[in-house]
Amino acid sequence: MEAANLTLVARLRLLPPQQQTKSYAWTESCKIAASGRSASIAGSSGFDLRGRFRRQQTRELLLGSCDVRGVEERRQRQRRRGGAVNVSAMDAAQPFYHESTRSQELDKNRKLKVGIVGFGNFGQFLAERILQQGHKVLAHSRRDYTDKARKIGVTYFRDADDFCEEHPEVVLLCTSIMSTEAVLHSLPLQRLKRNTLFVDVLSVKEFPKNLFLKVLPPEFDVLCTHPMFGPESGKGSWAGLPFVYDKVRISNGRRSRSADRFLDIFASEGCRMVEMSCVEHDRFAAGSQFITHTVGRVLGKLGLQSTPINTKGYETLLGLVQNTSGDSFELYYGLFMYNANATEELQRLEVAFDSTKKQLFGQLHNVLRKQLFNGEVATKNNPSQGFKGSSSNNGSKQLETPYKGGLGIVSNIDSLSHLFDVDIKKSIKLDKDHTSQSQRI
Questions:
Q1: 219 in the same domain as 70
Q2: 145, 156, 168, 386: least surrounded by Cβ within 10 Å?
Q3: Which 3 state secondary structure label does DSSP give 137?
Q4: Which secondary-structure segment (H or E) carries 172?
Q5: What is the spatial distance between Cα 397 and Cα 102, in angstroms, rounded to a whole number?
Q6: How confident is the model over 118-130, as a mean pLDDT?
């Protein structure tokens, strides 16, 4: 700071007397310096002008009774007497100090105050990563997460009014799909700033978009997002993981910076940023996310267990069951209830399963008919099949196999043949009737 004071004095000496007088007239402390006492110039940080030369020089500068040339002559005379210290300007430190201060201000402006509503597993998962980037995080939830929030450095509020009084720049809804509407209506929106940005991270997008536009005041900005990962799949790095967003209602100018800074949280983590409309998201999500959860839950009902001879495909199925079973049924039901495309995808899945089942049993029915009507011919032409026809007590053909208790097609025929017995007998009768009728004609 001493260098700054020296710079101030040296610069003022180069000004015309009129400007010197105007430059010093506003400070009260300069009057004290002009009266001959030691004083500090206002705006400096305690730099004293001591000695007769400095007091005289300061007095002349303040009163405007000298010019630059006169000051320089008196300075030279004083040097010859040996009692003067030359005052030189030191401007080198000032630009660095200014740049450092400006850099700190810019860094502070880049930091957000993010308020998370719904501090469950997913809310905590996002909060930890947001904190790591230096942002401030507040939290509010129906349950008491005070201890958990304190451990990770989040300020927790049990009361929604206290939460909104902190004026978070971003309100991030991490609630379940089913409770989003009730939670949004419970917030005292009048206590928030008019430029607050509302963000959701739900697995469906058209529903929160319509809800926000209906409930929130028009001064609030709306950003709909969906991180396509969770606490399990995003446990380590987020690099390459898709992050879908739609700038539903973002104001231009300074207010758009909050949305950009929030999106930068995920972009800086390496997420693959995908800007997509809410309509497109729900259409794609129904064919991917909802089907994935459906198949995983169906396989979970089977109680699949790991075996000593697991294939890669089976390991994939076990992983699918594990990933989907960790999510609540409420989440799965929300994917179905609040996505208009989910019903169509469920019907398509059902049709595909029925088609596969019909193809499978249709092939089995053909094998049964072939063995019943052409068993001897099939045995002669294909002796290596391991099947042979044998007559039962009632004269009908039955199948025998050397693979006792095996899992081949023969055991399936033996176990399921009774399902087609009635149809086969009807077919035989119809064939005989048709043959006899043809002979008569």
A1: no
A2: 386
A3: strand
A4: strand 170-173
A5: 95
A6: 96
